[in-house]
Write a structure and sequence with these properties.
Number of strands of chain B: 11
Radius of gyration of chain A: 13 Å
Structural class of chain A: mainly beta
Shape of chain A: globular
Largest sheet of chain A: 7 strands, mixed
Strand content of chain B: over 45%
Strand content of chain A: over 45%
Distance between the termini of chain B: 40 Å
Shape of chain B: globular
Largest sheet of chain B: 7 strands, mixed
Order of helices and strands of chain B: EEEEEEEEEEE
Distance between the termini of chain A: 36 Å
Helix content of chain B: under 10%
Number of helices of chain A: 0
Helix content of chain A: under 10%
Oligomer: heterodimer
Chain lengths: ~110, ~120
Amino acid sequence: DIQMTQSPSTLSASVGDRVTITCRASQSINSWLAWYQQKPGKAPKLLIYKASSLESGVPSRFSGSGSGTEFTLTISSLQPDDFATYYCQQYNSFFTFGPGTKVDIK
Amino acid sequence: EVQLLESGGGLVQPGGSLRLSCAASGFTFSSYAMSWVRQAPGKGLEWVSAISGSGGSTYYADSVKGRLTISRDNSKNTLYLQMNSLRAEDTAVYYCAKPLYSSGWDAFDIWGQGTMVTVSS
């Protein structure tokens, strides 16, 4: 089974900050990596698929990069609506989610 | 509008059974493999099960194999999850999820609102 890790687990930031979250896979998943945003009581929302493709309707301040085993999600300028928990997910072999990164207000 | 609407959650005793449903609309349901994903209270996301568009192939996480059964009725545009021999650790919000493209495994672009399952005596 493919295991996913994320760092950090919690990130405190201010509006306007550049934020980077890292996701690592236990083996190569090529570019079969997605990023989701989840707010309390809500379903996850797809942000990025195939490691770097921006889902329709998602603001361009979100970007993804990486391939193989190491990936990053970057928010170029954090906005008030971006305080949430972020999950990576591999879909190279079945599906595995990372443990999540909570982005909260500094 | 593409939409998924889960139902069937509730409180059940350990060892009991429950059937979840997910009604799909706004897309060609039979063309897409579908999945169930769950989230225990205060925890992360866990993929539970998937089924091919035809229903002929099913896949399960090891944690639920032999106890949960996924199925679909393409004539009713509905996905199901039959849950038997339920345990306390099955307590979670259960989401159905649609992949971005119909070609197979893919990221989930559409999620239902979720239905809560609580296993407790």
